[in-house]
């Protein structure tokens, strides 16, 4: 009988699966990358993969979350109040985040065929719920900053996270929106989000 893995070994294998997943997904895409190829590169049996991830789509989602965290971190420490026009600054940051998302190869992969739908179908409700809750929590520091500066934000963090998620999901539907009006549509959507969610006293 094969022995189990201790905690250190589990962490090493998890990291290796993520590393090889990034390499192979980046090279071949989600659909053309097989679990066999990933596990062969890691040096474990194919069946062992399922001790760590339920599907290759779940592994892809974990990598996507890591890419998303990098994007959030890139913009998290920007001082949006130094220009005395914080609403204008947050609009600019949202536009920059959209541009970054559009250029990210792992997110671009979701544009192809039914990759987004296929990935979501393979994810557990618990994993998605955890992801959405983490999204909401990530907005709390920004909400507090605005409130401390005298701005009024009445919507719940969950609603704000959902609205921003809707903005970023629009980047997956450029063709459906119409490429000739896509840029202006995104700009208007950002204006509506910021002006609708963040009110100055007296507005």
From TrEMBL:
Key word Protein transport present: no
Sorted UniProt keywords: DNA-binding, Repressor
Domain of life: Bacteria
InterPro entries (alphabetical): DNA-bd_HTH_TetR-type_CS (IPR023772), Homeodomain-like_sf (IPR009057), HTH-type_Tx_Regulator (IPR050624), HTH_TetR (IPR001647)
DNA-binding region residue numbers: 34-53
One of the record's GO molecular function terms: DNA binding
PROSITE patterns cross-referenced by the UniProt entry: HTH_TETR_1 (PS01081), HTH_TETR_2 (PS50977)
Location of the HTH tetR-type domain: 11-71
PANTHER family, per database record: ACREF/ENVCD OPERON REPRESSOR-RELATED (PTHR43479), ACREF_ENVCD OPERON REPRESSOR-RELATED (PTHR43479:SF11)
Protein name as it appears in the record: TetR/AcrR family transcriptional regulator
Organism this protein belongs to: Salicibibacter cibi
């Amino acid at each position: 009988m094969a022995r189990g893995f201790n905690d250190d070994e589990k962490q090493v294998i998890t990291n290796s699966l993520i590393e090889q997943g990034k390499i192979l997904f980046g090279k071949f895409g989600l659909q053309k990358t097989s679990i066999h190829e990933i596990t062969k590169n890691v040096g474990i049996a194919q069946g062992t993969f399922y001790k760590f991830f339920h599907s290759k789509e779940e592994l892809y989602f974990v990598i996507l979350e890591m890419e998303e965290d990098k994007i959030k971190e890139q913009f998290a420490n920007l001082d949006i109040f130094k220009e005395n026009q914080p609403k204008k600054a947050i609009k600019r940051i949202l536009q920059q985040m959209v541009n970054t998302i559009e250029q990210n190869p792992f997110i671009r992969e979701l544009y192809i065929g039914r990759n987004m739908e296929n990935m979501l179908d393979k994810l557990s409700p618990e994993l998605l719920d955890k992801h959405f809750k983490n999204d909401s929590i990530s907005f709390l520091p920004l909400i507090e900053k605005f409130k401390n500066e005298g701005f009024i934000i009445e919507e719940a963090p969950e609603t704000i996270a959902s609205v921003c998620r809707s903005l970023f999901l629009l980047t997956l539907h450029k063709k459906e929106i119409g490429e000739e009006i896509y840029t202006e549509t995104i700009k208007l959507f950002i204006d509506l989000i910021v002006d609708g969610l963040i009110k100055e006293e007296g507005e």
